[in-house]
């Protein structure tokens, strides 16, 4: 599975962005998908997961502001980000897991190149 994230950019605080993760090479319908991010000087952290059945998980840091969704017909996963804060500034990565949705990045075998999100305050 090849993954390509897009949709990043510069946005003002409280603004919105929608990231897309387009998959190719194989259908992602049976995969759990996740979005992770890495801020400057920090470790990579989980942002959201969605199971093959559509169940979602968010850490407290983004709960209520971010929404992950998947369109298996388009082989694409999305991350809608609202109410962006300066601390959301990071490179965002999408990933696919055959183990089911996991909070651990080690469970994700396939990764796309990141897309940079910069939130100005």
Uncertain runs: none
Could you give the distance between the termini? 37 Å
Instruction: Return the average pLDDT rounded to an integer.
Output: 96
State the secondary-structure class.
mainly beta
Percent of sequence in beta strands: over 45%
**Spatial extent as radius of gyration:** 13 Å
Can you write the helix and strand succession as a string?
EEEEEEEEEEE
How many helices does DSSP assign?
A: 0
Bulk shape: globular
Number of strands: 11
| Major sheet description | 7 strands, mixed
Helix content: under 10%
Mind explaining what this structure looks like?
- This protein has no helices and 11 strands.
- The chain has strands at 2-6, 9-12, 17-24, 32-38, 45-50, 56-57, 66-71, 76-81, 90-97, 110-111, 115-120.
- Strands 2, 4, 5, 6, 9, 10 and 11 form a 7-stranded mixed β-sheet that branches. A 4-stranded antiparallel β-sheet has the order 1-3-8-7, with no helix packed on it.
- The mean pLDDT is 96.
Short recap of the structure:
With 121 residues, the chain is an all-beta fold. Helix content is 0%, strand content 50%. Strand 4 (32-38) and strand 5 form a beta hairpin.
Write the layout of secondary structure elements.
Blueprint: E1 2-6, E2 9-12, E3 17-24, E4 32-38, E5 45-50, E6 56-57, E7 66-71, E8 76-81, E9 90-97, E10 110-111, E11 115-120
Question: What distinguishing features does this structure have?
Answer:
single chain; 121 residues; mainly beta; seven-stranded mixed β-sheet; four-stranded antiparallel β-sheet; 0% helix; globular
């Amino acid at each position: 599975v090849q993954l390509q994230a897009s949709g990043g950019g510069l946005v003002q605080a409280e603004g919105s962005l929608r990231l897309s993760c387009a998959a190719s090479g194989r259908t992602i319908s049976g995969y759990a998908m996740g979005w992770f991010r890495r801020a400057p000087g920090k470790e990579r952290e989980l942002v959201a997961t969605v199971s093959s059945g559509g169940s979602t998980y968010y850490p407290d840091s983004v709960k209520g502001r971010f929404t992950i969704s998947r369109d298996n017909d388009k082989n694409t996963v999305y991350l809608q980000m609202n109410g962006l804060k300066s601390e959301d500034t990071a490179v965002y990565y999408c990933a696919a897991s055959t183990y089911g949705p996991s909070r651990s990045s080690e469970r994700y075998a396939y990764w796309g190149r990141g897309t940079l999100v910069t939130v100005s305050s």
